[in-house]
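Input sequence (235 aa), recorded before submission:
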Amino acid sequence: MYIIMEYILHTWTRGLSMNKISEDAKVLKVFYRRKVITVDTLSSLLDSSVKTARRRLKLWEAYTSYNENGRYYTLPDIPEFDANGLWSYRSIRFSKYGNLKQTAIQLIRLSKAGVDAAEMAELLAIPVRSFLSAFQEHSGIRREKLQGRFVHFSAVDLEYNRQRDHRVSMTRITQLPRDTEAILILVEMIKNPRLNAEALSLKLTEKNCAVPARSISNLLAYHGLTVKKTPQVAS
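Predicted structure, token format:
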């Protein structure tokens, strides 16, 4: 409970009475026991105005919850943040990065392959609509549509290139054909080396093996094989 000792030393040097310091120390002990608290509850415990309670929270460097409309606070040495810098107490969630917008932006920047809305919702354990506005026209985020969904990347070129490459690699791996399908694709390629992915897909469908052209392209790219392009139709 280093906050209590720090607060006592800090306020004592400012000339506050020991009675007042002692009263606040008792409130801090209650805070530690409850783990999270609202500003109204703190105001009641301090027997002070809400404005004074907010000043105490700032002095104690308290974290604000990024859900529940930011109503809850916790002291900095209470949370045990996970690898993503997040911590929850019951249904109340906190981030070492700050509010919801700051947290979402930081999670995107630190991600290996960018983050789409569904992934962000799972990370933050809140509905998608709660944080989408945080991404709108933010200078630190680049939004791009890949495989039919929007993915948010860091706007920093070096980070963006690394994240995007990893995302494309992930997408290819997760959309590869099954082993038995891969064998049929390769056999069909040997028989018909001039066919592109779309034509191969149609050929396999005729043989009761439905494999999307995208999966075939992913397989060939994954193994470093040349993928024929669909011929352009003259307009």
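Checked by second reader. The two ends are 74 Å apart (CA to CA).
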